[in-house]
Amino acid sequence: MSKIINVILTGGIGSRLWPLSRKSQPKQYLEIFENKSLFQMAVERNQDLTDQIMVVGNKDNCHLSRKVMEKAGKDYIDIVESTPRNTAAAIAFAALASNPDDILIVTPSDQVIEGDDQYKKAILSAVEKAKKGAIVTFGIVPTKPETGYGYIEYQNDDVISFREKPNTETAKDFISKGNFLWNSGMFCFKASVFIEELKKYTPLVYEKSKKAWENNEQGKLDFDLSMEIPSISIDYAVMEKSDKIKVVPTQFLWSDLGSFESVYEYLISKGYQVDEFGNMVIGTSTFTAFLGLKNTIFVATPTANLILQKEQSQEVKDIYSRLEKEGSDLLN
């Protein structure tokens, strides 16, 4: 009998939220969102809408997922990647681990979603489309010309095109046209349909993922076999090529909290304190004063601090990249 399975992807590092987010404690496990982690919120959000939970993570964070799931008393299927190979492979493993007629609802583990009724409505709509053979993506109705998200151009429920993260002027143009949605990174499809499309459009990813999965040991994947899989996102591997793509425009409140600017806005919405000039402190209760600064975020951790203008949040990844090239322990 077919099931509806929530596949939660947990492989991200959250480099734009350094130094809060580290390799040893990525952003999806930080309990700074009303004393819950984003991963825990993802589990709770989908548990009543699905029959089974499947977590696709990596060897460095699977113990963090397990800790949350054990605390919640939840049974789940655990798929452990030995090395990151991007979302096409991660989702392929989930599909290969499922029965062909199972419906997979693929959700990242690092999003904030509010509006239970609207979320449920979107999920149910996507499931019905998936049962008919569609690969469904969820598009978020934009609230501003955001440059940190990809966009979906659509008409009715048909996807016309996927667009990369735009500059400010292009984002404003998208908003003015009225038929563009933010790309949420959420998907819904029948396991067999995804496998068929992956095999058709990116056969090497399919073949190597299948070989790696067939040689898994209790859900753990072999490193050498995994390294043979091309590292490609689901967008490039399937979504931008298949003629089976449908979109569900959604009305729920959504953020991937992918930058300190989005974290700032989320915390403000929850009553978090800032000073009269919009300056915020994260990570310490030590008295901190800002002089001559506006919209500045001070992020404190025991081993590293970050001071940034809110509007330059996207550039934090450049600091992360530099430290990574240096082999710095500050990323761990």
Describe this structure in words.
By secondary structure, the chain is of the alpha/beta class. It folds into two domains: 4-255, Spore Coat Polysaccharide Biosynthesis Protein SpsA, Chain A (Alpha-Beta Complex); 260-331, no CATH class. Helices cover 33% and strands 23% of the residues. The protein contains eleven helices and 14 strands. The chain has helices at 38-46, 62-72, 86-96, 116-131, 168-177, 191-201, 203-214, 223-227, 234-239, 260-269, 316-325; strands at residues 4-9, 52-58, 77-81, 103-108, 112-114, 135-140, 151-155, 158-163, 180-190, 245-250, 253-255, 280-282, 296-300, 305-309. Strands 1, 2, 3, 4, 6, 7, 8, 9 and 10 form a nine-stranded mixed β-sheet that branches. A three-stranded mixed β-sheet has the order 12-13-14, with no helix packed on it. It has a two-stranded antiparallel ribbon with strand order 5-11. Helix 3 (86-96) crosses helix 7 and helix 6 (191-201) crosses helix 7 (203-214). It is globular and about 60 Å long. The mean pLDDT is 94.
